[in-house]
Amino acid sequence: MIFKVYLMRIGGRRRSWRDILNGVAYVGDLRTMTEKRGDAIYTQALLVSAGALAQSQLPALYEPVLVSIAPMALQLRGFERMQEPAGFYSVVQEWHCVTP
User: Fold this and answer.
1) If both were cysteines, with which of 1, 19, 45, 46 could 15 make a disulfide (CB 3.0 to 4.6 Å apart)?
2) Letter string b/e over residues 12-37, b meaning 16 or more CB atoms within 10 A of that residue's CB
3) In the prediction, which pLDDT does 84 show?
4) Residue 89 in contact with residue 3, Cβ under 8 Å?
5) CA-angle at 99, arms to 33 and 73, nearest 5°
6) Around 100, how many Cα atoms within 13 Å sit in the side-chain half-sphere?
7) What pLDDT, in 10s, does the model give residues 8-19?
8) pTM > 0.85: yes or no
9) Which stretches of the chain are DSSP H helices?
10) Distance CA 44, CA 34 (A)
């Protein structure tokens, strides 16, 4: 299903509601999938751009949980994988998804 997604956190820190709605919105097909790495199985949400070359616009949201739902919107919370020179780590990320 096509959604417009707003990031509610940057580096794990919550943004103000005004900054969320006035910030960049990403439009695409919201999909969930499972991935197996070694013995672990991870669930992830992806926002895939429409078109012949489908690719993810945002980093995957790992272990997504439905936080709230409204007639034209929903919110997902999960973990985003971040990379720094010292290595990888995870932070909390929330997506505010509305129908365009």
Assistant:
1) 19
2) eeebeeeebeeeebbebebeeeeeee
3) 86
4) no
5) 80
6) 12
7) 999 899 999 999
8) yes
9) 17-22
10) 6
Q: What share of the chain is helix, strand, coil (3-state, %, to 5)?
A: 5, 65, 25
Output the six-digit token pair for 26: 């990403």
The answer for residues whose C-beta is within 8 angstroms of residue 73's C-beta and 6 or more apart is 96, 97, 98, 99
Which candidate, 18, 28, 10, places its Cα nearest to that of 92? Answer: 10
Q: Does the pLDDT at position 52 exceed 70?
A: no
| Total count of domains within the chain | 1
Give the integer Cα–Cα distance in Å for 51 and 45: 19
Residue whose structure tokens are 């919110």 = 75
pLDDT at position 83 is 87
Q: Is 95 helix (H, G, I), strand (E, B) or coil?
A: strand
Which domain covers residue 67, as residue numbers? Answer: 2-98
Tokens of 6: 């707003």
